[in-house]
Amino acid sequence: MKIKAPDGSQVRLLGFDEYPAIASFIDRNWKKDHAYVRSKALFDWTFHENPSWHEEDFYSLAVAVDDASVVGMLGAIPFKLNVLGDTVEACWLVNWIVMPHVKGGKGLALLNFFSNEDNFNTISFGINDEVAPLYRALGWKEMSPIPRMEWVNPSKKNYAEILLSRLNPDATIEEVRRYISKVSAVAFEINTPESKKLNEIAASVWDRKGWSVWRKKSIGCARDYSYLKWRYLKHPIYEYKTSVIADEGELGLIIWRIEITRRMNANGTLEDYIPFARIAEFLPVSEANARQLLSICLVDASAAGVLAADFYCYNSELTKMLKRIGFSVSKDASSVCLPNHTQPIARGSDIKSRIKSFSCDQITGEDYQWYWTRSDSDQDRPS
After folding, report:
1. Long-range contacts made by residues 142-145, C-beta under 8 angstroms, separation at least 24?
2. How do beta strands 308-312 and 270-283 pair?
3. CA 373, CA 312: separation in Å to the nearest integer?
4. Is the dihedral of CA 346, 365, 111, 78 positive or negative?
5. What is the pLDDT of residues 35-66, one digit of tens each?
């Protein structure tokens, strides 16, 4: 499986025995001491162990090579794209870079590699401002920034006020306090129905009673058991917590993790700071089920001493439900917002995305059927 860039340089998949070469390239040219350099297990999990990737001898990462040296790369995270019950092949594109001194069409050859070779629908989630004009020029469809649901732990209001005042310097203390009052108003239940962990549910049972509820009314990566097992239960670094609650024969699911944020101290080094809860999956089967699932998550988060929790998701049914429950949606809030970068903790920009080769009308607009969260692509991984 290989193609040629316009200038004749080779663009091909990375062999499974070539990890040392790509780790060195990433360390020198992408980011020093990157997570993929620190952990071969994380690299293998991302680009080889994915259940939607079937090339045993290759990673799902393409490289451009000149004179036997890697001069560019583009990773792909394959998945089954569910479109209201139908399934097509797709992939998230990650880690796209070509050395600035390299001439010719290597960058474009890499960008088109997985759609040309594997006929993948390709999505780039979390693009930066530098490459956005290129995607626009190539005709990739743009999605609006992904909405973010936010919650502040009521028992941590004083800490939140200090942090948010520092990270939102243009906001007055009254604006900060109004924001905290709004996003800490979620009421959760201490007593909830019996809950099971995802690994206590048989794969066929989840696919039939859980994922099937969302399969025909959503668009996005198929959340069947095979995917969930790889994405969360087999993650080599993060420990995700899971809760499944039955509701009249159907299964609702929530998945979250507790993250210790870091901050820069007076000596200029990073130190552990405050815990956050990052909700990665939320698939309730009713509003009552949603309240029960969230209650289990938030009780656990409160016990861990978290300052706040968040959940990124496009799906309009879920965002409306969460607003009714009391969560604040970031785009509806004032200029004050929770930090979305946590290593170190900082206020970052919105997460923007582009899509190629996708024939669905629901790319723009407010009535999104997309079920697409921050756990998609590589947006929830060690930095």
Report:
1. 142/352, 142/353, 142/354, 142/355, 142/363, 142/364, 143/314, 143/352, 143/353, 143/354, 143/355, 143/363, 143/364, 144/364, 145/331, 145/350, 145/351, 145/352
2. parallel
3. 5
4. positive
5. 999 999 999 999 999 999 999 999 999 999 98
Q: What is the mean pLDDT of the chain?
A: 90
Write out the DSSP string of 142-153.
EEPPPPEEEEE-
Domain-wise residue ranges, the chain: 2-143, 148-349
CA–CA separation, 59 vs 250, rounded Å? Answer: 37
Quote the pTM value: 0.93
Look at the domain 2-143 and name its fold.
Answer: Aminopeptidase (3.40.630)
Type of residue at 18? E
Residue type, 224: D
The fold of 148-349 is Aminopeptidase (3.40.630)
- Name 196's bridge partners: 244
Domains 2-143 and 148-349 share a fold: yes
Average pLDDT over residues 144-168: 92
Other beta carbons less than 10 A from residue 156's beta carbon? 19
The pLDDT tens digits for 304-362 are: 999 999 999 999 999 999 999 989 887 544 578 898 888 899 887 778 787 775 555 54
